[in-house]
Amino acid sequence: MQRHRTRFTSFTYKFLLAGMIAPFSFIPAIKLLQILHMGNNFSGLIMVDLASQIPFTILIYYSFIHGVPRELDDAANVDGTGPIRMFFQVIFPLLMPVVSTNIVLTFTSIWNDFSNVLFLVPNSSMWTMPMGVFNFQQLYSYNYALVCAYITIALIPVLIIYLLGQKYIISGMTTGAVKG
């Protein structure tokens, strides 16, 4: 979308970014999940979580691709590559920092999701990590030892995902730091 600007791509970008501005409405989401028979199961929750991440993902990719020099496109065209081959052999390898960053941020956001789980999954056996911490709350007390243990264990998957993508995330942050 960023490489070939048209009215359609500009409208699509603005429409998707409006998803970051407009508040998420649970009532239509719950009704839609009921109609699709996806309410109170993981597939409905996954669909809502991924749909809510699309605007931020588009913003990240759009901004990153904006920084990729067009001279690479011209050089690939001179070498005789088509648009699909150019994407997979020239552009996509440059996207590894943004792909890795997006995976880490999306995973962390979905892993820490509270409100979607609270409203869309009433079955407590399917609750995610923040809802599990919420479960330790009693009427007048909070068992902090269990909460700390639970959070420590729940941190492990996020830490593993970050460590796997760390090389690309660090290289992505330092990409524009030095003038060549």
Structural notes for this entry:
The protein is mainly α. The protein has a single domain (7-173), classed as MetI-like fold, CATH 1.10.3720. Helices cover 72% and strands 0% of the residues. It contains 9 helices and no strands. The longest helix has 30 residues, at 144-173. The radius of gyration is 21 Å and the shape is globular. Mean pLDDT is 79; it is low at 176-180.
The tally of beta strands, per DSSP, is 0
- How far do the termini sit from each other? 27 Å
Give the biggest sheet.
none
What's the number of domains? 1
- Rg from C-alpha positions? 21 Å
CATH architecture grouping: Orthogonal Bundle
User: Remind me, CATH topology?
Assistant: MetI-like fold
In quaternary terms, these chains amount to single chain
Secondary structure category: mainly alpha
| Tally of separate helices | 9
CATH class wording: Mainly Alpha
CATH superfamily caption: MetI-like
Low-confidence parts lasting 5 or more residues at pLDDT below 50?
A: 176-180
**What general form does the structure show?**
globular
Helix content: over 70%
Question: Could you give the order of the helices and strands?
Answer: HHHHHHHHH
> Mean pLDDT, rounded to whole units?
79
Percent range for β-strand residues:
under 5%
Q: What can be said about this structure in brief?
A:
72% of the residues lie in helices and 0% in strands.
Name the features.
single chain; 180 residues; mainly alpha; MetI-like fold; 9 helices; globular; disordered C terminus
